[in-house]
Inverse folding.
């Protein structure tokens, strides 16, 4: 999924969003996304990556995202 998003203009925003949700710089508190990683990843991906992806890559990614919820 990250390879599909890598060529989109939103790739840097997705990377920053994932870092903010999953990693806390000083690890002084628990990152909330660690409790539901698949759902958090899917939410960020849909919001940040899908809008700028070419149609073919976006449809492949959407199919993969649907599989995460199962």
């Amino acid at each position: 999924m990250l390879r599909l998003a890598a060529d989109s203009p939103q790739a840097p925003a997705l990377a920053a969003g994932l870092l903010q949700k999953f990693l806390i710089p000083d690890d002084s508190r628990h990152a909330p996304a660690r409790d539901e990683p698949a759902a958090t990843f899917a939410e960020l991906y849909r919001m940040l990556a899908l809008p700028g992806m070419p149609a073919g890559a976006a449809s492949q990614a959407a199919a993969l995202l649907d599989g995460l919820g199962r």
Notes: The longest helix spans residues 55-68. The chain has a mean pLDDT of 84.
